[in-house]
Amino acid sequence: xxxxxxxxxxxxxxxxxxxxxxxxxxxxxxxxxxxxxxxxxxxxxxxxxxxxxxxxxxxxxxxxxxxx
Length: 68
Description:
The chain is α+β, with helices and mostly antiparallel strands. The chain has one helix and two strands, in the order ββα.
């Protein structure tokens, strides 16, 4: 008792032609919006967006919206 809920976030990308699906579960993570940065890091790595020089045709996932 008195423990927070598990945080869950599920995503796929790109939206129009999915290549990857990600499911992140963090025990006592509270909300999906608290867990989403983990999924964001996975997607950024998959699409090669962790380097400083990005090709112009890469997907931008920094503008995500969350609902509860």
